[in-house]
Amino acid sequence: MTVEPLTRRSPLAGFAQGFATLPDGLALREAPFLTQLTVRTEPQGAAAGRVAASLGVAWPTTPCTFTAGEAADVLWLGPDEWLVVAAPGEADHLTGALRAALGDGGGSVTDVSAQRTALDLSGPLTRDVLAHGCAVDLHPRINPEGTCVQTMLAQAGVVLLVRDSTATAVRLLVRSSFAAYVASWLLDASEEYSSAPH
Description:
Layout: H1 16-19, E1 27-31, E2 35-40, H2 46-55, E3 66-68, E4 72-78, E5 81-86, H3 91-102, E6 108-111, E7 116-122, H4 126-131, E8 148-153, E9 156-162, E10 169-175, H5 176-190
Antiparallel strand pairs: 1-7, 2-5, 2-6, 3-4, 4-5, 7-10, 8-9, 9-10
Organism: Streptomyces tsukubensis
Protein name: Sarcosine oxidase subunit gamma
InterPro entries: SoxG, TrmE/GcvT-like
């Protein structure tokens, strides 16, 4: 009996061709299989400081912000909840390191990598397209680089990260079960710009 190996397939594996047809001024790609770890701890406690030091990333304590580092990004999701996002395949290593940094009774680390996929949207049309289905004002004066908000996009819950100073590069973390819907919506919302002058 031959057993076929399991093949890992991203939620948006069939969308690459559609992403390639976007109008000038807009680029969309999936960043699949990212390591995503939920960390719960006291924000001002010693454990949070140890975790930040172990990652080499400043620990965000301001609501609706994230900090970017070489090894990982850390997203503020709630008063005592953060999401650590790193490259694929780092879950085991980072989980062990973060639990060791937290120490006994210092908090918890949960691997939620399979829960969401990431969509990176960039270009001068980014804010225009997102405005069709998102109530967050993405003008850089209102939500500058480093903003991280949990919001709705076309009635789907997403975590939205502003990744540049002009708010023309964002990352959307979306539940895997809603990824195809959100990707299809983004493609539809961008169609009106296909013949628009840029």
